[in-house]
Structure formats: structure tokens, C-alpha cells
Amino acid sequence: MDAETVFDTSVESIAKACGKYQSGRNYNEGLAFNVGAGQMIAGFDKGVEGMKVGETKTVEIAPQDAYGVRDEKKLLTVPKAQIPDAAQYKVGMQVMSQNGQTFKVYKVDADNLIFDANHELAGKTLIFDITVKSVK
What we know:
With about 140 residues, this protein is mainly β. The chain folds into two domains: about 10-70 and about 120-130, Roll (Chitinase A, domain 3); about 70-115, Thrombin, subunit H. It contains two helices and six strands; from the N terminus they run ααββββββ. Strand 4 (about 100-110) and strand 5 form a beta hairpin. The mean pLDDT is about 90.
């Protein structure tokens, strides 16, 4: 994911402009969550603390307060001989293990598939433009 990439938005015009529009989604409804309840990444929770209804601010969240730093120990090398239909796997594909863990195909070489268990936003600094619409 490149810098300045919009990965989600509650603003319909932005969603359409960046190709993230989802028909059926109600863009008039914002994101509802309980501040401090662990429903959001830590930096987002910290960013909205103390905000008032109608207030807007930009919050920059470091990787350690978002999805963590990238961890090379989360790369898993598996010999192709151990994977049925190994030829179908392409770099960038998301796959799920038998126990439900999600991986991304990171690299394919002659003998191995290398899977990445890092979150796709691990190691990224995230920037959110946040507007508080209501507090319940």
C-alpha cells in the first residue's frame, strides 16, 4: 500500500473517487464504537479522546499504536512439494490456513512458497481525518 492510499472512508464522494465505493453501504452512518473498549486500534482511541461533537482533526498513528511493526518472523517458508496445487498461488493472494489464520503470498520461487502473516498495515504510519458526529 502506497503513501496517501485511502483504505477506508465514511465519505461517499471520497470512496467513489478512490475506487473504494461499496454499494449498499450507508455513508451517512459513521463508524460507531466505544472509546477505550479495545474495539479500535490504540492510536485511534487515543486520537478521539476528548473530542467534542462537530470537531474534526487529523490523527497520525505510529505503527506501534496501529497494527504493529513489520515482523520478519511472521514469514513462513513452505516447500511447494507440501502444498497441493502449489502452482495456483501467486504473489499478493490472500489464503487461509486450516486453523483460520490469514496469510498473504509474499514470494514464490522454484521450490518454495513464502507466506506473510503480518497485517497488511503493519509497519505503516496511518493518518485519519476524524469528525465526531455524535456521542451516545
